[in-house]
Amino acid sequence: MSWGKIYDTTWWGNTGESNGWGNVYPVSSYDAATQALLDQATTDGYTAASGSVLTALDNLIIALKADGIWTKVDILYVMATNGDVDFATYNLKDPTTFKLTNNGATFTSLEGFTGDGVNDYLNTGWQPSVDASQFTQNAASFGVYQRTNTAGDLDVMMSSNQTVANRRTIYADWNRVSNPDYKYCTGSSATSSDSNVSNVGLNFINRANSTQIAVYTDGTLFETISSTSTSSFSAVDTTILASNNNGAISRHSVNQCSMAFIGGDLSAEASDFYNAIQAYMTSLGKQV
User: Over the stretch 250-286, which tens digit does the pLDDT of each residue have?
Assistant: First the structure.
């Protein structure tokens, strides 16, 4: 009798695996990471993505793995889903960790979470000083897929900013009206020239060395900014749709976020990353 796995097609017409004792089990047609997400949703009693949206999500994960992006990402949230509001808060890299805490943000099916500019935000629970792995001093990135673009002076899309010891680890301030944008990534203050420029789509900040950060928009390099890196990372939670400045939540956004991530240097994968995310959003009919 063979102890190896053999494949069978007798399990109610679906492909299955036999353990050699005549018991046939269904084989998941999804990537292992997708299946882990579905299993966790079942455990938690949440409504998972389904149908063509689930297929698109699985294709996204497969594409990110094929392009070498998956292993470079510490946390990844795909909030645009037809699953329920709780399913939209999972960290795809590991759905058992860093689940988003929603502090009032409005969830819209297939689109993501929207802030109110006053109180709403999302908390990842991820602290750069404790939880960073791929995200390092001179190889780091973070960003969002933003569906709406309402310019204002209170418009922070992602933040873990601790002024103590200059721990300006993560901070992206998009579309300010009366002042320049400010962007940080493991380093000192960096003033961006993209004030009042539409930042819908995939936007991320990337550091590939100790002297500069780069701004990528829809897979294309928008600008580089002089910024010296520091190894002193922020010790506060990273928030989305608002700033977390040493524990004080402020500068709330009114825009809509469909995806957010934190990881290592993705400069070489910028175009592939955008193509994968945009393909997913297009399959939902929600691309910008």
Answer: 999 999 999 999 999 999 999 999 999 999 999 999 9
pLDDT, tens digit, for every residue of 84-96? 999 999 999 999 9
What pLDDT is attached to residue 24? 42
How confident is the model at residue 229, as a pLDDT? Answer: 94
Residues 175/151, Cβ–Cβ less than 8 Å: yes
CA 170 to each of CA 78, 108, 159, 165, 210: distance values in angstroms, whole numbers, following the listed order: 19, 26, 5, 14, 15
Whether residue 25 sits in one domain with residue 39: no
3-class DSSP state of 105: coil
Q: Using CA atoms, how far apart are residues 57 and 128, in angstroms rounded to an integer?
A: 27
The DSSP code for 125 is -
CA distance 255 to 48: 25
| pLDDT for the residue 166 | 64
Question: 43: exposed, middle or buried (C-beta count within 10 Å: 0-12, 13-18, 19+)?
Answer: exposed
Residue with the larger pLDDT of the pair 178 and 33 = 33
Distance of alpha carbon 107 from alpha carbon 79, whole angstroms: 9
Average pLDDT across the chain, whole number = 87
Distance CA 178, CA 112 (A): 28
Question: What does the DSSP 8-state code read for residue 100?
Answer: P
CA 209 to chain centroid = 22
SS3 70: helix
Domain extent at residue 271: 32-283
Same domain for 95 and 8, yes or no, is no
198 shares its domain with 217: yes
